[in-house]
Specification:
Mean pLDDT: 94
CATH architecture: 3-Layer(aba) Sandwich
Distance between the termini: 25 Å
Number of helices: 5
Structural class: alpha/beta
CATH topology: Rossmann fold
Helix content: 25-40%
Largest sheet: 7 strands, mixed
Shape: globular
Number of domains: 1
């Protein structure tokens, strides 16, 4: 199983809404006692377990996330992509198989690289306030400590969902658990 957490590299983007995927992969790594590392000349950070879980943070910036994917393509592999989702309020997660990019450029790039048939784990970051553009919204930090706390909880729940899938729990049961 290969898990891609989408986000933007660098301190400038740390803690922004668009980095919910990066932060969730970091949580999974922490649960497993892993450290993501960048190898020379690679466009990603990665960590893996001996039993087949691969964690990936593409370092190509959100809109080009799929550029890192070819290094991880294997026949029959299960792919999970974790990304922020404006159509969900902060603190909510949604897990789905397949679908479109719904205007999310990081997902669009991943679909172009690996096709549409992967599991998506969405972390709710809420819609922009009136007068705030989508790019300004997703590239900004949370407006309140409450929203940040809700997203922290959602990232933790998303990390647990991925670990449950990896441990062999059925997709349907994980979705049901995530929605409870």
């Amino acid at each position: 199983m290969t898990v891609f957490g989408l986000g933007n590299p660098g301190q400038r983007y740390s803690g922004t809404r668009h980095n919910a995927g990066f932060e969730t992969v970091d949580r999974i790594a922490a649960h497993l006692g892993l450290k993501l590392r960048k190898r020379c000349f690679c466009c990603f950070k990665t960590a893996h377990t001996d039993d087949g879980l691969v964690l990936v943070k593409p370092l190509t910036y959100m809109n080009n996330s799929g550029e890192a994917a070819p290094s991880f393509l294997k026949e029959g592999e299960v792919y999970i992509v974790i990304a922020d989702q404006m159509d969900l309020p902060p603190g909510k997660i949604r897990i789905r198989k397949g679908g479109s990019s719904a205007g999310h450029n990081g997902l669009k790039s991943m679909i172009e690289a690996i096709g549409p048939d992967f599991i998506r784990v969405y972390i709710g970051v809420g819609r922009p306030s009136p007068g705030v553009s989508v790019p300004d919204h997703v590239l900004s930090r949370y407006g309140s400590d409450e929203d940040r706390a809700l997203v922290d909880e959602a990232e933790e729940k998303a990390a647990e969902a991925v670990l449950r899938l990896f441990e062999g729990e059925s997709f349907e049961r994980v979705v049901q658990w995530a929605n409870s």
